[in-house]
Amino acid sequence: MSKNIRHKAMDLLARREYSRRELATKLMRKFPDSTEIDSVLDLLEAEGLQSDSRFAGSFFRLRVQGGFGPQRIRAELRQRGIGDELIAQQFSEHEVDWFAAARALFEKKYTGLDTTETKARAKCIRYLHYKGYDAEHINALF
């Protein structure tokens, strides 16, 4: 049974990086009665085939490229089982100018919009909050 679990885990990891929690969840759905999932995941981690650090770095870069802000990225990493220490490490390793990222997203989405209008401005602010930017980043735009 553990051989089947390992093969399924490696099939998943061949496509993209997964956090340990994500991988465990997927394997639990496929093998609901198995008690060997944790030991298989420990072995994969020891062999360097699964790494939360590698996943966090990959995920972080992908989300920054997608225009997401620090709050949203932090929340999504936590949701995927990444600890606060590893999240802080990713933020310190990847120097991101969040003000420039917020400006680029704003200009891409709302070029030509009259932000002096209260309704239009509120729409922009809601969108930037949704994308994960905090008030400091948003206020710098207006």
From TrEMBL:
Residues 95-140 form the RecX third three-helical domain. Residues 51-89 form the RecX second three-helical domain. Gene3D superfamilies: Winged helix-like DNA-binding domain superfamily/Winged helix DNA-binding domain (1.10.10.10). Keywords: Cytoplasm. Its main location: cytoplasm. Pfam families: RecX_HTH1, RecX_HTH2, RecX_HTH3. The keyword Cytoplasm applies. It is found in: Cytoplasm. Residues 6-42 form the RecX first three-helical domain. Belongs to the RecX family. Modulates RecA activity. PANTHER family: REGULATORY PROTEIN RECX FAMILY PROTEIN. This is Regulatory protein RecX. It comes from Zhongshania guokunii.
